[in-house]
Amino acid sequence: MFISMFGAVESGVIYAIMALGVYLTFRVLDFPDLTVDGSFVTGASVAALSIVNGVPPILATLFALLAGFLAGCITGLLHTKGKVNALLSGILMMTALYSINLRILGQPTLSMLHETTIFKQLGSFWSVTGIDNALNSLLGVFGLDRLPSTWAILTVMAVVTVIIKLVTDFYLKTEVGLALRAIGDNKRMIRSLSANTDNLTIVGVGLSNGLVALSGALIGQLGGFADVNMGIGMIVIGLASVIIGEALFGTKTIARATLAVIGGAIIYRIIVTLALRVDFLETGDMKFITAAIVIIALVAPKVHQVQREKKRRIQKRKQLGGDSHA
To answer: Which of 80, 172, 179, 260 could form an SS bridge with 198, CB 3.0 to 4.6 Å?
Structure first.
């Protein structure tokens, strides 16, 4: 059980980078971008091809980020300069990326199992520190038999994700970041202030997909392969992370909202892991579980709000009734 939860948190921290990208488009820009399903695979594909051809893993991961940024910029161009509907521009780019990703990979699946990935390099460096033995010895006191082989991925990726979160917070508080937020709130108003909303939208969608591709590159290296179909449903997973996080942690400030997204991504992976441990559910039920989680996360806060409103009305009626009798 502990190993399953550990794996869920480990992958959840990496998927949180993708969720932050989804947050930028859907919440900040109010842009329904479906490019995510394609750019996630683009990140994994570019990283896999680069690593197989001898490119250092860190450089390959940066190439993946740039490829995702480029894909997002094209989506933004289709919408702003080509005057294509936002939803349709994302669908068109996602469809085009399927063929592009297949071209990059050269085959449906490209293995990295025998290649040096960023996590293998990290593991070899981490093993020298002796941190794994110390943490596992500490957990052994609580009677846990099965312990993680390494804490390197979770620890380092948690730090990387927090750094990306802090950079995102800082960026959204700059002049350009405030303009991006204003576009999502009221595009007409920001245009009246002579801001170039087209360029800002292109950059915003590009940054979003850059983060998505970065997450895809890391997930691909974690699993040891890149597959042309590994991005199916990623947009739903990203939205689930955003919605769950917002429902549980709130969105009063940007810093709180981005933290909520990271928390939502981790909680989503934990929920899926727990659901798959139920006897009658199988791995093939993943998409159904994801849809169910999103529906519950969307409906539950609304139902709770309605119940609170009913209670308030009842209390007001009682107060009015008491006043009239007095």
So the answer is: 80
Quick: pLDDT tens for 173-226: 998 888 888 888 777 777 766 678 888 899 999 999 999 999 999 999 999 999
244-296 pLDDT per residue, tens: 898 888 888 999 999 999 999 999 999 888 887 777 777 777 778 888 888 88
- CATH 1.10.150 at 2-277, yes or no: no
Please list, in sequence order, all residues whose beta carbon lies within 8 angstroms of the beta carbon of residue 263, skipping any fewer than 6 positions away. Answer: 245, 248, 249
Each residue's pLDDT tens digit, 34-58: 999 999 999 999 999 999 999 999 9
**Spans of all domains in the chain:** 2-277
Whether the pLDDT of residue 16 is over 70: the answer is yes
SS3 per residue for the chain? CHHHHHHHHHHHHHHHHHHHHHHHHHHHCCCCCCCHHHHHHHHHHHHHHHHHCCCCHHHHHHHHHHHHHHHHHHHHHHHHCCCCCHHHHHHHHHHHHHHHHHHHHCCCEEECCCCCCHHHHHHHHHHCCCHHHHHHHHHHCCCCCCCCCCCHHHHHHHHHHHHHHHHHHHHHCCHHHHHHHHHHHCHHHHHHCCCCHHHHHHHHHHHHHHHHHHHHHHHHHHHCEEECCCCCCHHHHHHHHHHHHHHHHCCCCHHHHHHHHHHHHHHHHHHHHHHHCCCCCCHHHHHHHHHHHHHHHHHHHHHHHHHHHHHHHHHHHHHHHHHHHC
How far apart CA 308 and CA 304 sit, in angstroms, is 6
* The two three-digit tokens of residue 99, written as one number: 């063929």
CB–CB of 130/137 below 8 Å? no
